[in-house]
Design goal:
Order of helices and strands: HEEEEHHEHHHHEHEHHHHHHHHEHEHE
Strand content: 5-15%
Number of helices: 18
Number of strands: 10
Largest sheet: 10 strands, mixed
Mean pLDDT: 89
Structural class: alpha/beta
Radius of gyration: 22 Å
Low-confidence stretches: 1-36, 521-541
């Protein structure tokens, strides 16, 4: 199960004015209390260059496995930092979570560092970490080595199972995964919840010496941010939540009796279907130079796509059958540039009977382990321990058909994304399930993209409604997260908010800098709501 992107794309995808935040440029030392539990030992971060010559510093944090038992077993968190680049202008630390769940911050923050607005990089140390259970931290790892993990992955098709035989193989594979994980470290499985990670974040905030938290979370990182904001509302200095999960949908309104899967409750199927339709429309309106899959018109391109998927069900091109292709399409929608043109190229290859070449991964960052183990059991452990899902594997085929009726191929993909939860052996011991309206010390900035294939815009609207004091900034564009699909307008608003607390005017909207399949670069000034015009900063990363 890959929530942030299908297999092969997680590293790349991984892939964020009525009130003013007041803060001093020099920050005082913190207290050491945690919410709802005894004090944890003081956390110390011994920073050193990640590798020789690296501009990033690394450290290892030891935190309690169980925050309710701080004297018990401890686990390690891999932490990374890039110091503020503006001499004498540093405000504090910006913590960043890259989403997932399962995104390794020690890899994805360095890869995406240049996407943070220049003003933010100048004024803040940017810190990220591999959350508990993930990557280079104490990780959920249910195999003795890579041969076992690879054999498990080969036991089921990629993307979407087709037919009774493949569905049975999927269900059996995840049952096997759950048994393996339960045998290796059952205690860890109960302590990788979002709530556990939010308590880790509070300890990290204290360790860097900031009296309040400054935070940017994208995708799943928005739910982590909302959880922190309601556990530690007085500690919120500034918080940007980019491409949001509806917190009530994630928790199933705090009920364990789930009729639909997590991702269907979040509306990811309908969101992905709408973005796929936009991809085919815009591709069909473009030349084949800009979108190789174009058939000359939106209608013809949609028909061509449907024909291709029907053909791949019975006549695959090498390993590219229907299931893996649908998974690749959903992942290809996440990043507009160069993702959409690349996706068009792969679809055209398949149309012509050629197996596409795999997409190149981004350059490895200068860190000790640029490619940590990121097995499927890591996001499975977080989602299935945290969020209720139907516990009967036999219910998933009917859910698939219902979702396909409203969302087509995307509905089939997102239905099966959490089938591992049907037989997962662990439930999180510590989960915060609401309410979501505790008043924070300062307001929260919520950013939502109108055409998002994973976290639909309705999720950002819901997040802004649920939080006690939040302002919604609308990103009129495509792809998953404004961070990875940049808008200089969004960046300007985020910079002002993070630096001096100035929120965008109510109703503010921003456009994407570069539309899909276009070389045109709009200026980015848009309606700011309430009849005004946004005062857009001109700087870019």
């Amino acid at each position: 199960m890959h929530i942030s992107a299908p297999p092969g794309r997680r590293r790349a995808c991984a892939a964020a004015v009525a009130a003013v935040v007041t803060c001093a440029a020099a920050l005082a030392g913190p207290g050491l209390a945690t919410a709802d539990g005894p004090p944890a030992p003081a956390l110390k971060l011994d920073w050193s260059p990640c590798v020789k010559g690296s501009p990033f510093d690394c450290a290892t944090a030891k935190v309690p496995l169980d925050h309710g038992d701080p004297g018990g077993r401890s686990i390690d968190l891999a932490v990374i930092k890039r110091k503020a680049t503006g001499p004498g202008r540093r405000i504090g630390t910006l913590f960043f979570n890259p989403g997932g769940p399962g995104g390794p911050g020690t890899v994805q923050m360095p890869q995406n560092y240049e996407l943070f607005p220049r003003e933010v990089r100048e004024r803040f140390d940017i810190v990220s970490w591999d959350p508990r259970g993930i990557g280079s931290s104490t990780a959920v790892n249910c195999f003795a080595g890579s041969p076992q993990a690879q054999a498990w992955a080969r036991s089921k098709t990629a993307g979407v199972p087709v037919g009774e035989k493949e569905r049975a193989a999927w269900i059996a594979a995840y049952q096997d995964l759950g048994r393996r994980c339960q045998q290796r470290d059952p205690q860890l499985l109960r302590h990788v919840s979002t709530t556990d990670t939010a308590r880790d974040l509070e300890l990290l905030r204290q360790a860097v010496g900031d009296p309040q938290l400054t935070y940017l979370g994208i995708s799943y990182g928005t739910y982590l941010g909302a959880t922190y904001a309601n556990l530690f509302p007085e500690q919120v200095r500034a918080m940007v939540l980019d491409s949001n999960w509806d917190p009530r949908a994630w928790t199933n309104d705090a009920s364990d009796a789930a009729r639909l899967t997590t991702m269907l409750r979040l509306g990811s199927d309908r969101g992905a279907a709408a973005v796929l339709d936009e991809f085919l429309r815009l591709c069909g309106a473009a030349t084949t130079v800009r979108c190789p899959f174009s058939a000359g018109s939106p209608e013809a391109t949609r028909d061509k796509f449907d024909q291709l998927l029907r053909r791949l069900r019975t006549d695959p091109v090498g390993a590219w059958s229907y299931g893996p292709t649908v998974g690749d399409v959903i992942g290809g929608l996440y990043s507009v540039l160069p993702g959409w043109a690349d996706l068009g190229g792969r679809l055209q290859d398949l149309w012509q009977g050629r197996a596409p070449q795999p997409s190149a991964l981004p350059p490895a960052p200068p860190v000790p382990d640029p490619s940590p183990y990121l097995g499927e059991e890591q996001p499975v452990a977080v989602v299935c321990g945290d969020s209720p899902n139907p516990r009967d594997p036999g219910a998933y085929p009917a859910m698939e058909e219902a979702s396909a009726a409203r969302a087509g191929d995307a509905g089939r993909y997102w239905t099966w994304a959490t089938v591992g939860c049907a037989t997962w052996p662990a439930v999180a011991q510590d989960t915060y399930r609401g309410p979501w309206n505790k008043r924070t010390a300062h307001p929260v900035l919520v950013v939502g993209t109108t055409h998002d294939p994973a976290t639909p815009y309705s999720g950002s609207q819901a997040m802004a409604r649920e939080l006690a004091d939040a302002r919604l900034l609308t990103h009129e564009g495509y792809g998953h997260t404004a961070l990875l699909n940049p808008s200089s307008c969004v960046q300007a608003h985020e910079s002002r908010y993070l630096i001096d607390g100035t929120l965008p005017p109510a109703g503010s909207k921003c456009r994407q800098d570069r539309p899909p399949f276009s070389s045109d670069v709009p200026k980015g000034a848009v309606s700011a709501g309430e009849g005004g015009t946004a005062n857009i900063l001109t700087s870019r990363p």
